Amino acid sequence: MRRSYSILLSCLTCLAPLARGGAQSARLDSLDAFIKAQMAQRAVHGLSLAIIKDGTIAVARAYGVVDDSTKAPVTTSTLFQAGSISKAVAALGALHLVEKGTLALDADVNAKLTRWKVPENKFTATEKVTLRRLLSHTGGLTVHGFPGYDVSGPMPTLVQVLDGAPPANTAPIRVDTTPGAIWRYSGGGYTVMQQMLIDVTGQPFAQYMQTTVLGPIGMTSSSYEQPLPSTRASLTATGYYADLTPVRGRWHVYPEMAAAGLWTTPTDLAKVAIEVQQTLAGHGHGVVSPAMARQYVTEQKNGDALGVFVQGSGKSLRFNHGGRDEGFDALLEAGAETGDGVVVMINANDNSPMVSRIQDYVARSWEFVGAASRPAPAATVAARIDASRLAAYSGYYEASENNMVTLMGNPALSAMQVLADGRPAEDLLAMDSTHFGSSDRPFRVAFDMDGSAVTGATWALGTPRERRVARVAPLPSTLQPRPDPDPALATRISAALAAMRDGGATLASAVDVSPGARKDFSRGDSALADFARATYLGEEDVAGRGIHRHGGEVARVRLYRVPTERGVRYLLVHLTAAGVVTDYDFTPL
Question: Is the model's pLDDT at 7 over the cut of 50?
Answer without folding.
Answer: no
